[in-house]
């Protein structure tokens, strides 16, 4: 059963390759243009495995920001992983320390979104199947991220600018978020976060993204409370 769950996760995450491939290639190409050598580009992708924070750190380093500032900004952008981890605890928190450490290292947005959606739709999954499924979704995305980063670093300068590989980032996050908007609080949280992100765009060091996330959380929680009060009033 565990093997079947693993391969099911592997297949379920396959559609995201459409955006992961160009996104990884874009990072490899941009990092090389910024002056990083091949070893530095690959070390960054292997150690971080998070496109948004990698681009954030790279941009700040290009602007001659101190390394500490670049690292803190990348960490701020990646704080969403802490929320992902908390959401996954009820499903895979029973796994051993080594397995959980590997899960945390390999965690990416796509793996989290696909896994949580499946866990909610299939509550009959056993704890072992949930762990196997999660490794399945991760084991497809991460090697592709490494390989396409390398490809972008090697041939990125030969890619015509009109191909506009940067389309991958927004499409990827839209594809991740849209299936999870299943209730009014979800929609309220998403809209509030989007509007706040636009309003906080000028905040330094990734703080606008974190602030927008907090606004979205508060708005979604308030919508949930309002619906609860409305339901009690009708009872």
Structure summarized in a few sentences:
The protein has about 240 residues and is mostly helical. The protein folds into two domains: about 1-165, no CATH class; about 180-235. It has twelve helices and no strands.
Task: Note the total helix count.
Answer: 12
Radius of gyration from the alpha-carbon trace, in angstroms = 19 Å
Structural class: mainly alpha
Which spans of ≥5 residues are poorly predicted at pLDDT below 50?
none
Largest β sheet strand count, sense and barrel closure: none
Characterise the protein shown here.
It holds the Pfam family AzlC. One of its GO terms (biological process) is L-valine transmembrane transport. Belongs to the AzlC family. It is found in: Cell membrane. InterPro entries: Brnchd-chn_aa_trnsp_permease. The protein starts with a helix and ends with a helix. It contains twelve helices and no strands. Helix 3 runs antiparallel to helix 9 and helix 4 packs antiparallel against helix 5. It has two domains: 162 residues, no CATH class; 55 residues. The longest helix has 29 residues. It is globular and about 65 Å long. The protein has 235 residues and is mostly helical. The model has no long low-confidence stretch (mean pLDDT 81). 77% of the residues lie in helices and 0% in strands.
What features would you highlight for this structure?
single chain, 235 residues, mainly alpha, 2 domains, 12 helices, transmembrane helix, Brnchd-chn_aa_trnsp_permease, Putative branched-subunit amino acid permease, cell membrane
């Amino acid at each position: 059963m565990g093997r079947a769950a693993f391969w099911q996760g592997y297949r379920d995450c396959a559609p995201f390759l459409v955006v992961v491939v160009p996104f990884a290639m874009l990072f490899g190409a941009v990092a090389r243009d910024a002056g990083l050598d091949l070893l530095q580009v690959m070390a960054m992708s292997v150690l971080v495995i998070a496109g948004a924070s990698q681009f954030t750190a790279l941009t700040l380093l290009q602007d001659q920001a101190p390394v500490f500032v670049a690292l803190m900004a990348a960490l701020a952008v990646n704080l969403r992983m802490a929320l992902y981890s908390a959401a996954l605890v009820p499903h895979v928190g029973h796994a051993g320390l080594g397995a959980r450490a590997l899960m945390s290292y390999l965690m990416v947005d796509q793996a989290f979104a696909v896994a949580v959606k499946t866990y909610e739709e299939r509550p009959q999954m056993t704890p072992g199947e949930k762990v196997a499924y999660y490794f399945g979704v991760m084991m497809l995305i991460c090697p592709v991220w490494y390989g396409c980063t390398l490809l972008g670093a090697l041939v990125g300068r030969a890619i015509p600018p009109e191909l506009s590989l940067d389309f991958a980032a927004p499409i990827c996050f839209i594809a991740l978020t849209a299936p999870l908007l299943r209730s009014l609080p979800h929609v309220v949280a998403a809209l509030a976060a989007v509007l706040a992100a636009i309003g906080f765009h000028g905040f330094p060091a990734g703080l606008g993204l974190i602030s927008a996330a907090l606004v979205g959380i508060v708005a979604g929680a308030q919508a949930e409370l309002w619906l609860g009060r409305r339901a009690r009033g009708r009872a």
